[in-house]
């Protein structure tokens, strides 16, 4: 396969147009004749060079690797004089043809071809075609073409194989990123050398696979919540009716998610969601128009520089609409409504931090309870093996997880929720004959319960060797928490109906720590005895025969009742804590009415879109930094900053979109990444997977075996990697003009200030843990600290459409090894302007692009580059959705060239 690109190392001279007194607007069109199918495939054009008989073409033409091109294929180059903004009003000047084989076999892989008129009666110039690869740019002087020089426009041909960095052909990226679109440019530097610029845009296969995984997790989590509510047992009629209503609403949500998942499973189309589908219900969890944009630059130094940005529509619930605002406003209003509903429906109001804590406790208990049971069994197994070293290690693991379990329950919320749950049982009568404790706001104070205490003297054997039926007595026969009168309490059964001992939970909870201390103490004694009573092996064996006594059996016998008591205490505590926290979440659902679960769906929707984009960006950044030891150290030490750039206005519906996006980006703090070793290099084994629940998700990113083995030990051991998401927004369209003059931009100001503080805190953490010398080097000398100071000043400055905030935030992100994202409503129009501007700014600042080439380069990328192809993919039209009136409100650097825009429905 061969790709054809125009080059700027030569030019056309004295081209003739239909009217000799008019200078032509020239472009070159490329067409391929399939030798087997005998069909012509019109692929693309160069940019149009206006008003000159000596055009210099900068833009390349890419041939899709999917097109059937072989050595026998004929390539036809046609030169046109464009009279208006469209090729439909153009006149043909001349053409030339060649075969791929001719090019490949020619000297220096270069052909000089005569441009002929349509009747082949005359020559109108010469076109030179040469094959060139990335990384093979020569440091040549600018060609000074004299008046009598040959008329020529040079095209550069690039092989589709080996044109990108070898890492691009790795199976992981090939599996995750699909349908690449490539464009090639050659631009001049200030010293007259040439830059070869390759632009590539790809779809992300995660756009559909990760939302399907998330929907499965949502369904699973909500199903567990339903079961927890059912497991609460018998409740009074009032509470039972509330539970029934909540279960009904959960059932409706689960059914809706199942239907959406079923529709997504049927999807067989492209790997991206076009902007025109942003309102479709079954696609609401899929990010809008998600693509990776990569620019690779090869200069005279023959070293490649790569710049990546992820483009995606702002995570927003378009299907649900924005009449009531976005998530940020709806969630604030929701908390006020919950308080009024709690009074109307006679249920408890728990603030968001308490319901979040309840979910944390439920998750921790569900994870640690079976883990502690398994570790306890492992301790008994090592005791049977009479391994002092193994016993020590097993006890260490058991103690660690049990302490985590105990500390997870160190909260007055659990105790107060147990009382509220008891009050919701049938037959409860309040001692004070006043309103039920469950009818008031729940505002528990931090607990003052103790942590695991040092080992204590084991209880007498008669109190330890009990039958399973007396396990509860074991739990409640230990010392009470500090502050209990007398230092100990007697065991009491849990009171029923009219009584409830509020200290019962303290006793049961503290019993876990006490029983662990007993196990620890006995293990220490056994190890000390083993060290002091060891005898020669023959003597020990003879003594065992004579006494018929097994030391291993003695160890196991001493530990078995203690371990059984510990497990039973853990199970009892887990059961009570789980029920109490499930009751808390019942209150949240009951107080929220159907509106609450609808809000949860909205939050799930926008989070799904944001998570997919983040996972896409993380994979791109990880793979590009695999050989950068400084980046890998930063990754596991402080994590990565993920900088979202938004161009939404703070007016009309886009306010709601921005409010959705703010919550979605903030929720990404709950996401961690883990790098795993793929079981094989099979592409199906290299797809990332998501696990967890709404308050915490982990994305596992598998790497091929060879790549995985090169990682630092911390990453190979599965350390969870954090991402610090930040969002900066500056509206640039005419709606932002209305907002600045007649509306309210406080949302934008608050977002920028808050996220500046987060970015500054990240930099301070990075500075303390990672050598700043390991950060990327840039030509511009401004350091990160100075850029941050300038950004801080711009954030507080009252300046209309201050796009410098976005430029500074992007520059800081790149210097901090971060992940860059750019968004507008659909990542199609304003996003295209921003991405191309950033690419040309990088060429200017980092690669010495000539000043007079900056605007031309910008127009080339916007007119014929990957972003106009993105527009075509989305709406089947090569026009940015702007009109002249709108563009008058845009900052000048964000305006597309003439002929590339027009108002279209998108």
Automatic annotation (TrEMBL):
Keywords: Hydrolase, Lipid metabolism. SUPFAM superfamilies: C2 domain (Calcium/lipid-binding domain, CaLB). Residues 1-113 form the C2 domain. One of its GO terms (molecular function) is phosphatidylinositol-3,4-bisphosphate 4-phosphatase activity. InterPro entries: C2_dom, C2_domain_sf, INPP4. It catalyses: 1D-myo-inositol 3,4-bisphosphate + H2O = 1D-myo-inositol 3-phosphate + phosphate. Pathway: Signal transduction; phosphatidylinositol signaling pathway. It is an enzyme of class 3 (hydrolase). Gene3D superfamilies: C2 domain. Residues 463-482 have a biased composition (Polar residues). Belongs to the inositol 3,4-bisphosphate 4-phosphatase family. This is phosphatidylinositol-3,4-bisphosphate 4-phosphatase.
């Amino acid at each position: 396969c061969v790709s054809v690109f125009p080059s700027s190392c030569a030019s056309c001279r004295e081209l003739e147009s239909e009217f000799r007194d008019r200078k032509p607007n020239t472009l070159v069109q490329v067409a391929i004749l399939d030798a087997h199918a005998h069909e012509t495939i019109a692929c693309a054009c160069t940019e149009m060079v206006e008003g000159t008989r000596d055009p210099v073409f900068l833009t390349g033409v890419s041939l899709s690797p999917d097109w059937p091109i072989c050595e026998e294929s004929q390539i036809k180059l046609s030169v046109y004089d464009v009279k208006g903004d469209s090729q439909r009003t153009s006149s043909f000047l001349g053409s030339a043809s060649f075969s791929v084989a001719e090019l490949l076999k020619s000297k220096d892989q270069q052909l000089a071809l005569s441009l002929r008129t349509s009747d082949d009666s005359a020559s109108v110039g010469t076109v030179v075609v040469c094959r060139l690869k990335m990384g093979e740019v020569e440091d040549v002087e600018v060609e000074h073409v004299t008046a009598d020089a040959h008329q020529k426009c040079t095209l550069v041909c690039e092989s589709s194989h080996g044109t990108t960095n070898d890492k691009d052909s790795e199976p992981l990226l090939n599996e995750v990123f699909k349908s690449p679109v490539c464009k090639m440019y050659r631009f001049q530097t200030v010293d007259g050398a040439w830059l070869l610029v390759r632009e590539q845009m790809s779809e992300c296969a995660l756009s559909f696979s990760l939302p399907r995984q998330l929907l499965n997790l949502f369904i699973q989590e909500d199903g567990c919540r339903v079961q927890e509510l059912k497991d609460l047992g018998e409740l009074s009629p009032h509470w039972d009716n509330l539970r029934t209503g909540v279960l009904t609403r959960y059932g409706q949500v689960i059914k809706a998610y199942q239907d959406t998942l079923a529709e997504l499973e049927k999807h067989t189309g492209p790997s991206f969601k076009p902007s025109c589908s942003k309102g479709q219900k079954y696609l609401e969890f899929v990010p809008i128009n998600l693509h990776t944009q990569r620019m690779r630059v090869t200069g005279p130094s023959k070293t490649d520089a790569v710049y990546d940005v992820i483009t995606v529509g702002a995570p927003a619930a378009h299907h649900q609409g924005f009449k009531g605002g976005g998530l940020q406003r709806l969630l604030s209003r929701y908390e006020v409504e919950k308080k009024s509903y709690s009074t109307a429906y006679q249920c408890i109001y728990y603030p968001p931090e308490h319901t979040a804590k309840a979910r944390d406790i439920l998750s921790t208990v569900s994870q640690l309870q079976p883990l502690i049971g398994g570790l306890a069994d492992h301790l008994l197994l090592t005791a049977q093996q009479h391994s002092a070293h193994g016993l020590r290690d097993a006890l260490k693991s058991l103690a660690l997880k049990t302490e985590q379990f105990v500390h997870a329950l160190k909260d007055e919320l659990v105790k107060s929720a147990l009382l509220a749950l008891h009050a919701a049982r049938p037959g409860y009568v309040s001692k004070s004959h006043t309103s039920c404790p469950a009818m008031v706001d729940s505002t528990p104070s931090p607990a003052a319960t103790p942590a695991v205490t040092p080992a204590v003297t084991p209880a007498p054997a008669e109190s330890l060797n009990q039958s399973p039926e007396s396990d509860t007595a074991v739990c409640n026969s230990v010392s009470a928490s500090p502050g209990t009168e007398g230092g100990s309490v007697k065991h009491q059964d849990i009171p029923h109906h009219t009584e409830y001992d509020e200290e019962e939970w303290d006793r049961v909870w503290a019993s876990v720590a006490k029983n662990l201390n007993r196990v620890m103490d006995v293990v220490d004694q056994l190890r000390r005895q083993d060290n002091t009573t060891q005898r020669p092996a023959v003597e020990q064996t003879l003594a065992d025969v004579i006494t018929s006594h097994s030391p291993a059996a003695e160890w196991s016998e001493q530990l078995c009742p203690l371990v059984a008591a510990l497990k039973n205490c853990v199970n009892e505590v887990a059961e009570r804590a789980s029920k109490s926290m499930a009751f808390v979440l019942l209150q949240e659902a009951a107080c929220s009415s159907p509106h609450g679960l609808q809000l949860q769906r909205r939050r799930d929707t926008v989070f799904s879109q944001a998570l997919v984009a983040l996972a896409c960006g993380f994979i791109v950044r990880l793979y590009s930094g695999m050989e950068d030891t400084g980046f890998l150290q930063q990754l596991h030490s402080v994590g990565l900053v993920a900088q979202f750039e938004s161009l939404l206005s703070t007016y009309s519906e886009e306010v709601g979109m921005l409010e959705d996006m703010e919550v979605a980006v903030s929720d990404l703090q709950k996401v961690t990444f883990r790098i795993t070793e793929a079981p094989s290099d099979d592409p199906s084994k290299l797809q990332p997977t998501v696990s967890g629940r709404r308050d915490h998700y982990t994305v596992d990113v598998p790497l091929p075996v060879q790549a995985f083995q090169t990682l630092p030990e911390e990453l190979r051991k599965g350390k969870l990697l954090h991402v610090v998401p930040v969002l900066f927004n500056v509206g640039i369209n005419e709606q932002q003009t209305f907002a600045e003059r007649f509306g309210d931009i406080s949302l934008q100001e608050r977002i920028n200030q808050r996220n500046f503080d987060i970015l500054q805190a990240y930099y301070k953490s990075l500075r303390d843990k990672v050598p700043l010398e390991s950060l990327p080097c840039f030509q511009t000398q401004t350091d990160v600290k100075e850029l941050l100071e300038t950004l801080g000043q711009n954030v507080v400055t009252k300046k209309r459409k201050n796009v410098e905030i976005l430029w500074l935030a992007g520059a800081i992100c790149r210097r901090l090894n971060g992940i860059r994202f750019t968004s507008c409503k659909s990542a199609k129009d304003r996003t295209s302007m921003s991405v191309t501007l950033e690419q040309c700014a990088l060429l200017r600042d980092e690669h010495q692009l000539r000043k007079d080439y900056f605007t031309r380069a910008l127009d080339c990328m916007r007119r014929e580059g990957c972003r106009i192809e993105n527009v075509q993919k989305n709406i089947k039209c090569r026009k940015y959705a702007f009109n002249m009136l709108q563009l008058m409100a845009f900052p000048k650097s964000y305006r597309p060239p003439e002929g590339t825009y027009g108002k279209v429905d998108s």
